[in-house]
C-alpha cells in the first residue's frame, strides 16, 4: 500500500481499537488538511530528516512523509506501534519508528546528523522538551512545535509584555521564534481544555557558548523569579547593582523591561 491509499486516520484508530490516554497527553489531529498545513509551515522538507515526537495515530507523520521528509518518529505509547508499522511500510523506508521517551532520547543519534524537529507535543512535557532542544548539544536545523497557546505566546513574547519571561529570553537568545498558526480545541480528538498554537523556531546562525547559556539560565531564573522587584534586588545574590552596571543595565528596571540582548550582557558579566 502507498501513502495515498492509506485508510482515513479514524478508520486506523478504530481498526486497532485505540482510544486516547490522558496520561500520555494524547490529543490527536485527524484532519490531514491541518497536518499538511503544519508540514508546509515546517518546510521545505523534501529530502530533509525530521524527528517527530509522539506520532500517535500518524496524521502529522503522513503529512511530513508526503512533503518528502525522512521521518524518525519517537513514540512512548507502544499501543500505536502496530498502526504506525503500516505507515512505515507504506512510506517505502522513509519512516523509522523508535519506541522511547523523547525526554531521554539522543537527537544526534536519532537524526544521524542534520535534522528538524516537528511535533504536536504532549503538553505535559512540551516545555521540558523545548528547553532540552534549546540548551542541548544537538542543534536542530529548525523546530515547528505545537504547544498550548499560552506557552506558545510565552516563547515568542516581546519584551515588556505580560507573557515575556524566562522561556522567551532563552528561546529568543538561541532562535528566532514566531507563532505561525492558532488552533481551537475542536481541531483535536479528544479536544483539550485550552487553545493551541504552532511556533516555528529557527536557530541563530552561531550557537551560543554553553557557558554563556548556563549563565543566562541563572540570571533569568533570578530576575524572573521575582519579576515585580527591581533588578538590583532580584539579582542581589548574583552581584546586584555592580552586575547591572557592568552590563549597562538600569538596576532600577524590572526583568520584563530588559530585552534579550540586555540579558545576554548580564549573563556575560556574571563572575
Ligand atoms: N502527533 C499526533 C497527532 O498530532 O495526532 C499525536 C499528538 S499527541 C498531542 C502527543 C503524542 O506524544 C502521543 O502520541 C503520546 O503518546 C506521545 N508522547 C507522550 N509523551 C511522550 C514522550 N515523553 N516521548 C515520546 N512520545 C510521547
Protein described:
With 271 residues, the protein is an alpha/beta fold. It has two domains: 3-203, Rossmann fold (3-Layer(aba) Sandwich), CATH 3.40.50; 210-269, Orthogonal Bundle (Helicase, Ruva Protein, domain 3), CATH 1.10.8. Helices cover 39% and strands 16% of the residues. It has twelve helices and seven strands. It has helices at residues 9-15, 32-42, 59-66, 81-90, 107-111, 126-135, 149-156, 166-174, 210-225, 231-234, 240-246, 260-269, and strands at 49-53, 70-75, 95-99, 116-120, 143-148, 175-183, 196-203. It has a seven-stranded mixed β-sheet with strand order 3-2-1-4-5-7-6, sandwiched between helices. Helix 8 (166-174) crosses helix 12. The longest helix has 16 residues, at 210-225. The protein is elongated and about 65 Å long. The structure holds S-adenosylmethionine. Residues 24-29, 53-57, 59-60, 74-77, 101-103, 120, 122, 125 line the site of S-adenosylmethionine.
Amino acid at each position: 500500500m502507498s501513502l495515498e491509499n492509506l485508510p482515513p486516520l479514524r478508520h486506523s484508530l478504530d481498526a486497532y481499537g485505540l482510544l486516547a490516554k490522558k496520561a500520555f497527553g494524547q490529543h490527536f489531529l485527524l484532519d490531514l488538511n491541518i497536518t499538511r498545513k503544519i508540514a508546509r509551515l515546517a518546510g521545505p522538507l523534501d529530502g530533509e530528516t525530521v524527528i517527530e515526537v509522539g506520532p500517535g495515530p500518524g496524521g502529522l507523520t503522513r503529512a511530513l512523509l508526503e512533503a518528502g521528509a525522512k521521518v524518525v518518529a519517537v513514540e512512548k505509547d507502544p499501543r500505536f506501534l502496530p498502526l504506525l508499522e503500516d505507515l512505515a511500510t507504506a512510506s517505502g523506508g522513509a519512516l523509522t519508528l523508535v519506541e522511547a521517551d523523547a525526554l531521554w532520547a539522543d537527537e544526534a543519534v536519532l537524526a544521524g546528523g542534520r535534522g528538524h524537529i516537528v511535533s504536536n507535543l504532549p503538553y505535559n512535557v512540551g516545555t521540558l522538551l523545548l528547553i532540552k532542544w534549546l540548551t542541548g548539544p544537538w542543534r536542530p536545523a529548525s523546530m515547528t512545535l505545537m504547544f498550548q497557546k499560552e506557552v506558545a505566546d510565552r516563547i515568542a513574547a516581546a519584551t515588556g509584555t505580560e507573557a515575556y519571561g524566562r522561556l522567551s529570553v532563552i528561546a529568543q537568545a538561541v532562535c528566532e521564534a514566531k507563532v505561525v498558526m492558532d488552533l481551537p480545541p475542536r481541531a483535536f480528538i479528544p479536544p483539550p481544555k485550552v487553545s493551541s498554537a504552532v511556533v516555528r523556531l529557527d536557530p541563530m546562525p552561531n550557537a551560543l557558548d554553553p557557558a554563556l547559556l548556563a549563565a543566562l539560565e541563572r540570571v533569568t531564573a533570578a530576575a524572573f523569579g521575582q519579576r515585580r522587584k527591581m533588578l538590583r534586588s532580584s539579582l542581589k545574590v548574583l552581584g546586584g547593582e555592580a552586575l547591572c552596571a557592568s552590563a549597562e543595565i538600569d538596576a532600577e528596571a524590572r526583568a520584563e523591561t530588559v530585552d534579550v540582548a540586555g540579558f545576554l550582557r548580564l549573563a556575560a558579566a556574571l563572575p
